[in-house]
Known about the structure:
Strand content of chain A: 35-45%
Low-confidence stretches of chain B: none
Number of strands of chain B: 23
Order of helices and strands of chain B: HEEEHEEHEEHEEEEEEHHEEEEEEEEEE
Strand order of the largest sheet of chain B: 3-4-7-10-9-8
Oligomer: heterodimer
Helix content of chain B: 10-25%
Structural class of chain A: mainly beta
Shape of chain A: elongated
Amino acid sequence: MSSIQDLKEIMKEINEPNEFELFSFDLNHPYYWIFKVEKVRVKKIFTKIEPLRLFKSRFDVFINGLFIASNDYIFETKGDDLYIKFIRTQFPPLDQFGNPYILEETDEVKIKGDLELI
Amino acid sequence: MERKETNRGKQRSIDKQYIKGVKLIDVDTTIADYIVDSIIPKLEENGTVLKVPLLYGNAERWNGARKNGYLRDKRGRLQIPLVMFKRNSIEKDESLTNLKDVNKIASFRKYSPTNRYDKFSIMNNTKPTIEHYNIAVPSYVTISYEVMIWTSFTEHMNQIVEAFQYATDRYWGKVEEYKFRTRIDSFDTTQEVAEGSERIIRTTFTMVVNAYLLPETFDDKPVTQKVFSPKKVIFGIETDLTGNLFTNVSAYNEYQNVIDFIATRGSQMATFVNANTVKLTNVYLPLLPPELVGTFDVNNWFRVYVNGEFKSYLTYTFSFNALTNEITFNFTGLGFNLDGNDEVAITGKFQEL
C-alpha cells in the first residue's frame, strides 16, 4: 500500500466525522432518558494516535442543537447498537417555561464524531 | 506446454528399503517359507530322514494332482510325501475398513545422517532431527489357500497334520518381516489303494490368511513419505495494530507531524475564573504544522459552548501557558457576564494530558 493511500485511510479514521440521529428507546427509566441508534459504532483508530484523542473526545452529543457535556450522559454499546443514557439528575429540574424538564420523543438527539455505520 | 509446479520442500529422498510395498508374492512366499521352515516336520522312513518338499500348485500341477490323485516328477516317479498349496481367492476384510487417503501410519527413525554433533549446534540450541515416515494405510484382505498333502503312511500324515493344526491361529512369518495370521478350520483325509499302484494317503484343507496389500506407488506418488522434524522452533513477535485500515507504520512516521496535529482533539468543561474568563487545565496546545498553514481554518481551532450554545470565535480570545499547561479564554462579546453556574464546554485542537 502506498503512503498516500495510507494517509487517506488515516484521514478516514480521524478527519471524516459523521453525524447520526438517535431515537428514544426508554423515556420512563427512573434514572435515565435513553436514546438509541442502530448499526453505528465508534471507529477504530491507530494505537499511536489514541493518546491524542481520548475516547470521550471522539464524539459530541447534542439535544435540539445544544451541546451536552460528557458528564451528563453515559455512553453504551450493545451488539451493533449505540445507546446514550442522559442522566436525569444532571439536567435542571425546570425548563425555561417553568415546566418540569423532560426529554420526549420529539426531541432531536444527535451524535457527531468518529462514527461509522456497521 | 505448462511447466509442472514442483515444491522442492516436499522432495525428500527415501532409501529403497523404506518404500517396499506388500505384494501378493510377498504373502505367498511368507506363507510358503513358514510352512517349510517351521511347520513341516522331518519324517523317518526305514531309518532314513525324509524331507517333505513343498510345491506351489500352478494350474498344470494342480489339475494333474486333482485328476490323478497324485503327482509324478519329470522321470515319472510318484512324488510322495509332498505338500502342495495354491492361492484360491482374495476377499476384502470388512472388519478392518480405513480411510486410505486420509489416514497415515506414522513411524520414525531417531538416527538421521543429517544430525551432526558439533559445538555450533549446541550454541544454537538445535535439537537432533527425527526422520518420520508416513505410510499409507494398506488394503486389508483375506486370502484363502488350498493345501494338499500326500504321504505313504498314516503315521507320516498324522505328524504333518498335527504340525499344521498346532500352527493354526498363529501369525505366520519371520521375525522382523511380514507376519500374517493364518487359520485352518478342518482337515479332510482320504486313503487310496488302487490295484497295481502305491498306497496314497491324501489330506486336503483350506487356510485362511489375514493379510494386507500395499503398492509401492499409487497415482505416480510413493505411498511412503519422509518428513524431518524441525531442529529448532523460533517464536516471532506479532503486533496487532488496532487501526485495522492503517497498516503501514512507515507512512505514519513520514507524516507524523501532520497526522498528530489532525488527530489531536480534546473536549473539556472549562473552569470558571471570573465573569469574563474561563480556563482549560492540564492541557497542551499543539503548534500548527507548517504544512497546514493556509489550509487549516485557525478560526475553528476551538468550538466553545456556553450552556450548550455555540459561541463564535469572535466572542473570545485565548492564550496558552506552557508552564502551567493551561489555556485561558477571555470573553469579550458574550453580552452577559459568566458566573460559576454557567457551563462552558470547549472542544478542539488541544491535548488532554
